[in-house]
Amino acid sequence: MRWRPPQWLRTPGAVIGTALTALVLVVAALADVIATTDPFATIGPPLTVPTAVFPMGTDDLGRDLFSGVIHGVRTSALVALGVGLIALPLGILVGGVAGARGGLVDDLLMRFSEVWQVLPRFFLALMVIALFGPGLDRIVLVLGLTSWSLLARVVRAEILSVREREFVEAARAGGSSEWRILWRQMLPHAMPVAIVFVTLLLAQVCLIESSLGFLGLSDPNAISLGYLASQAQRFLRVAWWMWLFPGLALIAIIVGFNLLGDAINDRIRGRR
Amino acid sequence: MTRRYLARRLLQVPPAALVILVGAFLLIHLAPGDPILALAGESGDAAYYAEMRAKFGLDRSLIEQLAVFVGNVVRFDLGDSYVLGRPAALVIAERIPATLLLTGVALALASTVGIAIGLVAAARVHRRTDVAINLVTLALHATPSFWLAQLAILTLGLWAGILPVGGMTTARSSATGVAALLDVAHHLVLPVAVLAATEVAAIARLTRTGLLDELSQDYVRTARAKGLSERRVLVRHALRRALLPVVTVIGGRVGHLLGGTVLVEAVFGWPGVGRLLLSAVQARDTPIVLGVFLVIATTVIVANVVTDLVYARLDPRIRYA
């Protein structure tokens, strides 16, 4: 029997998005296997053009750029994963409770989330770094804690749209508790939209992380694609590869997340 | 726009501002070490420490400290920058015009170009022009602004050599009047283009989607049926409604734009608030970092309110219940 791709995988955008995201995850998981050299170690002559030995060349200190890019992708993926693990449950919890309970709880939670929505995340991250020093943990924490509010609104809207539907009424009539109805009946309905939102959010998170890296404010112990790009600044004329590869890797990550999110979104819309 | 809507929307501002103030206050107190070190730097003398302790009420209870802190902020009194030794508010204020020039021109350019490109794509939907525009905007949307800035420096600045790649004016230039203005404009081209590029992509994509939604509506069929030219249908009828969500997005992206400013100012050496903030973060110059954060947060809140008010003004259906 021939394998047939699922419905949502049938547009070029969906295929490219899925492939890029899968590639990023594989590279992040196997970074140490793919690039065995230490990205911080001097292992060759400085500013070598890309060759078979150094597929992406070396930087001004003779460090292997290929290893840097591979480990940079891992850092981006780690930050994205951490932020997703904080923002997704928070957004689902707040949005779910607000939508299911309604009334005063809903009002208060939504007013509360509005405040978080206008917080300029990038600048908050800069302030935290200024006060606490650089580090991946605080970047993840700041971005995660400030990224749930829009997700909560999206989840709430979905919950509201199913609150009076027959299957929910049926569960109520069957004597299920409020929590059980929210968890078993309503949230599964909101999950696809939440996943779309988180996918697009992670693209933004990777952009912010690399921007911090570019400004020299990311974790000094973890190589960042933004940091690699900033190292290229002084050698733009002589070492185009130092500029090209970190940027391409970043664009691949972000395009991947965006296309994947768009594809799932199209699928959800098409279903309705 | 009803007066009630206006009042309700404006009433949402103080809580947001308060949360930002309390958040900043808590961050300063949560930071490792004595908060006086965060507020006054590590190299101050005893007299200055005592002065700053008194100014921020550090020997009183936390609640009183918060009140004092809010009072200081409201009076734009954040203490001196420990690197520059001058009042932080003054240092920041000096840098605002350069950033305002950069972001203002970029936002205006991004809005007009973005809407125009979205219009062209929608008019040629699914044809080659549309596909090409889609690909370019998708790529542009995913491109970090610092990388784009380096590309611009590499191609337009270094190889072609037609545009200056750093600073706001030519060094040691004695130009005055119109010549000085032209010099600034010349230096403005690359930073503005880079800053506007990602916004152009976002606005163009949204305009296109909005227009395509509108074009399937009955009123568009009516307009076409009564013999209006396609251009008139697009620009006069569909675009007017499609622009409503675009207005929201342009306003909502002010925070994003300001974030991009930090990177663009860093790459191009533009002497604005972004570069000031960057050097302050590196030097852990808290009064400056705090001040810039508060200015940015206020700007974003105000931009959001203004956007909502403009939206309500443009769309008579909006009535805040």
Put the structure in a nutshell:
The complex is a heterodimer of chains A (272) and B (321). Chain A has 272 residues and is mostly helical. Chain A has eleven helices and no strands.
Helices and strands of chain B, in order, run as HHHHHHHHHHHHHH
Helix content estimate of chain B? over 70%
Rg measurement of chain B, Å: 24 Å
Poorly predicted regions of chain A: none
Shape designation of chain B: globular
- Count up the helices of chain A: 11
Molecular structure report:
The complex is a heterodimer of chains A (272) and B (321). Chain A has 272 residues and is an all-alpha fold. In chain A, 72% of the residues lie in helices and 0% in strands. Chain A contains 11 helices and no strands. In chain A, helix 1 (12-29) packs across helix 3 (65-101). The relative contact order of chain B is 0.14. Chain B starts with a helix and ends in a 7-residue tail after the last helix. Chain B has helices at 3-11, 13-30, 35-40, 46-55, 62-74, 88-123, 128-142, 145-159, 177-215, 218-225, 230-252, 254-268, 273-282, 286-314. Chain B is mostly helical and 321 residues long.
Please render the helix and strand layout as text.
The complex is a heterodimer of chains A (272) and B (321).
Chain A: H1 12-29, H2 31-34, H3 65-101, H4 103-117, H5 121-132, H6 136-145, H7 149-162, H8 166-173, H9 178-214, H10 225-232, H11 240-271
Helix pairs in contact in A: 1-3, 1-11, 3-4, 3-6, 3-7, 3-9, 3-11, 4-7, 5-6, 7-9, 8-9, 9-10, 9-11, 10-11
Chain B: H1 3-11, H2 13-30, H3 35-40, H4 46-55, H5 62-74, H6 88-123, H7 128-142, H8 145-159, H9 177-215, H10 218-225, H11 230-252, H12 254-268, H13 273-282, H14 286-314
